[in-house]
Structure formats: C-alpha cells, structure tokens
Amino acid sequence: MELDDFGEALDALVSAGAQNFGDCASIESLHRELSRFEAFVTEATAAFEASEEWAAEGAKTAAAWIATRCHLPRAVARRRVRLGRTLRQLPCCTEAWREGQIGTEHARALASARRHRTEHSMARDEPMLVAQACELGFEDFERVLDYWKQLADPEGADDADEARRARRNVYLESSYSGLWLGQMTLDPVSGSIVSAELNRLERQLFDADCAEAAERLGRRPRIDELTRTSGQRRADALVEMATRSAAAPADGIRPAPLFSVFVGYETIKGRICELENGTVLSPSALVPWMDSAYFERAIFSLGGRVDVSVRARLFSGGTRRAIELRDRICTHPYCYEPAENCQGDHIEPYAQGGATTQENGRLLCGFHNRLRNQRGDRRERPPPSPVAAA
Ligand SMILES: [Zn+2]
Q: Are residues 33 and 130 in the same domain?
C-alpha cells in the first residue's frame, strides 16, 4: 500500500460528496476511521522522530521540522511528537487506538497520565485503564484516570491540588471607558461554590425574564425573545450577589459548602473525593474547608440502601439524594444536565404501580422526562451500583 493509493481512495470519497454521508451510521464510522487515522499518523510521527531524517535539513527537533513543513502550530507539532514517543511505552493503548476501540482524546489522556512517578503503575495497570477507556464516555474515563493518578502518585495529586489552589486570582479593574473588566481563576472547590450561587441567581432571573416575555407576547417565548442575554443575566446575578452580601446581617448563618465523599468503589480503597460536578480532588484539597463545610458520606454497596417511602409519589429525602449521587446527571444517553436541574423519574411508571425506590428511580431533566412521556423513550445509561446515603 502506497500513500498515493490512500490519496486516491480519499479522492473517491470526496467526489462522492460529503453531504451524502450525513446519516447516523456514516458519521459514527467516519469518526472511528478518523481516529484510527490519527493513531496511524501519530505512530508514523514517532518513527519519523527516531529516523532523525529531519536533522539533515538543519531542524533542531522533529517537532520543529513538522511545524514548518506541515504548517502546524508548534505546540501541536510538539504534542504529536511527544504522544508518539509515549505510545511506544503503551502497547495496549496503541493497539486499541489503531483498532478504533478508543478515540484520540482517550489515547491522549492515557498518555498524559504516564509520568515519571507513575510509569511503574502504568506498566501494571495499562490493560485495565484501556478496558475502561473502551467502555466509558470521555468525561467518565477522565474521572477514572484522575482517581488512578491519585493512587499511583498521591503526592503528585496533592501537589497538583495545592498548585491549582495557589493559582486562584480575581482581577477587576475599571477601564478608561468606564467599563469594568474582569477575569477570575478559582480552584475547584471555590469555583463550584461561586458558580453554584451564580447559576442559582441566574435561573431566578431567567424565570423572571420568561414570565415577563410570556406576558408581553401572550405565548411561550423563544429564547431570543427574552430581554436579556444569558451573559447579561449572569452579570446581573453577580451584582445581585454583591448587593445581597452587603445587606447580609453580620450575625447571619453562613451557608456551608457540602462535600460528598464516596466510599466503596472496588479498587479505590476509600481515597475517594470529588465535587458534585465530578471534579476529582485529593483529600488534602478539602483541608482548608474542614471547619466550614458539611461532609456527607455515600457508601456504594450492593447491600445497604435508603428508601424513604416506597409508595410516595415523589422521590425525596434520602432516596432522592441517593439517586442524585448515583446518577449525577440526566440518565438520557445524549444528555449531561446536572442533578440540580433534574427530576426524580420512576423507571416503571408510578401510575402502573412502580415503587418509589432507588432501584426504580433515575434522574431525567425536564426535557427528557417530557420526551419519555410523549414517545415512551426508554433509552438510558446502564445503571450503576446502588448507593446508601449516610
Ligand atoms: Zn436530559
């Protein structure tokens, strides 16, 4: 096989017209082939680096040669060369990527987890991690990888969390035109506290905008018929936060952040700690919050679980919380709506005698709950193990 043959095959595909490949099956296989091709190019790049052919033209590195000759940003060229080099140490990953079982981003994430301090653990755990990469969506896989890094290199994870916290910074300055310009960098815990409150206020403003537009138009408004954009609402929400803070009584009760600590995912041995949005933290990242936070412990087990009342109409209390902690997001396979925007849904409908239990409950956002009721759409992610909220 020559590269010219490949070029000809690609020409044939192009002349068939991309618009004729816009169906589900084609899009799926095009992405699979694209990712296999990227694997191929990356492996070839590693061979190119080893050949040192690039040195003949005076390039100092293979990446410099590629950046110039292939018109790539230098950072992109460097990343590809580095990935190709790391792949040599990751035979399972290379194989799976070549076969199209994992995508480029999975391979990249795996390779970046192989550091000096983790290389022994990686040699041992690579097949397990690749199996997880084949199985899981990218975000879930990233989380598994974060946990693995914590176990393989606990000090590195602690350092990384400390470094993330040290980078916190807020910049807010008035410009010459009188506008205020700002930027913020927050560590995962602080960021989720600020963002949760900002989102909560923005949702209130959104509801108010919807109500105002419905009144004005006499029907349900479209998103572009609201008087404020989402950015403007967020700005107003931030001002509202400042106003409420200034008005808060000095002896008011401080709301404390809530951390969920998960126990019992087989291999993890209790070193589990993540925020509701799925950000994995090393336990030391919680130390600064110890005095001012609530902690809840969720035990993942087959035996124990909590149900409030099997015949209650709505999921509430411990049952609702257990479902939230287990599902995290809307369980529709094409949806990532967080738990706070989801409803507890009976898998076997309540009207047909479905019980209000953890096993019969799942999170669905409003849209997918309605879709399910209209179309009887029963698609869902495979159910994870039950949780006992303690
Ligand atoms: Zn949804």
A: yes
Q: Which CATH number does the domain housing residue 345 bear?
A: 1.10.30
Say how many Å lie between the CA of residue 83 and the centre of ligand 1. 35
CA distance linking residue 233 with residue 198, whole number of Å: 10
For residue 113, tell me if it sits in a domain: yes
Region class of 317: left (phi > 0), else alpha (psi between -120 and 50), else beta = left
CA 381 to ligand 1 centroid distance, Å: 12
Give distance in angstroms: CA of 35 to centre of ligand 1: 28
Number of domains in the chain: 3
Given a cut of 50, whether residue 390 has pLDDT beyond it is no
Question: What is the distance between the alpha carbons of residues 141 and 130, in angstroms, rounded to a whole number?
Answer: 10
Residue with structure tokens 């994430």?
109
pLDDT of residue 307: 56
Q: Could you give the residue ranges of the DSSP H alpha helices within 70-187? A: 74-87, 91-99, 104-113, 119-135, 138-152, 154-166
Q: Give me ligand 1 centre to Cα 363, in Å.
A: 8
Q: Residue 385: what pLDDT? A: 47
CA distance 328 to 339: 5
How many angstroms separate the alpha carbon of residue 212 from the centre of ligand 1?
26
* Same-domain pairing of 85 and 36: yes
Residue 163 located in a structural domain: no
Sign of CA dihedral 227, 229, 234, 236: negative
